Amino acid sequence: MNSTVYLSKTNDPYQGACEALDALKFNVKGKKVYIKPNLTGGEPSERGMTIDIGLVRAVLERLHDCPKITIGESCSDTVKAFNELGYRQLAKEFTNVHLEDIRKADIVWKPVPRPFHTKEMPFNATVFEHDYVINIAKMKTHSLAGVTLCLKNIFGFVPTRKQKLMYHPFIRKAVLDMNQVIKSHFCMIDGVCGNEFDEVQSTPIKTGAVLAGENLLAVDLAGGKVMGIDLYENETYRRAIDLWGKPEIELLGASIDGVKVVYRQGCLPSTRVRYCKETAASILYRMVNRH
């Protein structure tokens, strides 16, 4: 897979996305496309938790004769996110666009080819009706996973809160299982305004970057450099490189040094307590449920 990554230095998410997509000659025709944005309730992108809708608009403008286009997410309040962030209007504006609340989707269990955490996992069935997945992540840190970029964004395809509970405390391995089942064909990161320190609390950090490329690992590794985080030292990404190979990244556009902002890592004591409770609940839940 092409390991070219385009880095746009910008304060405008839409313009940055257009620049990156055009530079990479992104143009999808005749495919059934699933777009997975990283949304956090109805939070505006300036608060650092949710991607800017401008990236999705830029993608939709470059999809041609696609018989089916789905935009799906399973955040804390997907309906609110679609309503307040402009996705309802976007779906009316572009033909063949359907919005999916993954929390309410039909569920299908899929085997994991090379399990790191579990041998099979539940996903929303709809994504497997598409042949092209576009993964649009937000640039954020995460106390368990290290970062929330494209690799972790696939976590949103697990439908229900209880099912997520089985995997979230073990996310460093679970996301490797998830990404073996659902392959991202094109990836983007909204780093115009990211989020640092605690993943539950909004702590926005202006970065002015949009990244894009076909190779998920290449895009994430470049994104980590923009954040001042060496993902080659991250347990999950080391395993991912062993699994899929180390990408030889060709960076186009702006330089890393031109946009680099060091993100603080860590979390609030309340978040640590929350994860301890989640781990205990996850173990109990897995004892009596399919996993």
Describe it for me?
Helices cover 34% and strands 26% of the residues. The model has no long low-confidence stretch (mean pLDDT 95). The protein has helices spanning 13-23, 53-60, 78-84, 87-93, 150-153, 161-167, 171-181, 216-226, 235-244, 256-259, 269-288; strands spanning 4-9, 28-29, 32-37, 63-64, 68-73, 97-101, 107-111, 120-124, 132-142, 146-148, 186-195, 204-213, 250-253. Helix 1 (13-23) runs parallel beside helix 2 (53-60), helix 6 packs across helix 11 (269-288) and helix 7 (171-181) runs parallel beside helix 9 (235-244). Strands 1, 3, 5, 6, 9, 10, 11, 12 and 13 form a nine-stranded mixed sheet that branches. It has a two-stranded parallel sheet with strand order 2-4. A hairpin with an 8-residue loop joins strand 11 and strand 12. The protein has a single domain (4-288), classed as LarA, N-terminal domain (Rossmann fold, 3-Layer(aba) Sandwich), CATH 3.40.50.11440. The radius of gyration is 18 Å and the shape is globular.
Low-confidence stretches: none
Average pLDDT, to the nearest integer? 95
Please give the count of helices. 11
Rg from alpha-carbon coordinates: 18 Å
The H/E string reads: EHEEHEEHHEEEEEHHHEEHHEHH
Helix/strand-derived category reads alpha/beta
The CATH architecture designation is 3-Layer(aba) Sandwich
Q: What's the CATH class label?
A: Alpha Beta
Question: How many structural units, i.e. domains?
Answer: 1
Total strand segments: 13
CATH topology descriptor:
Rossmann fold
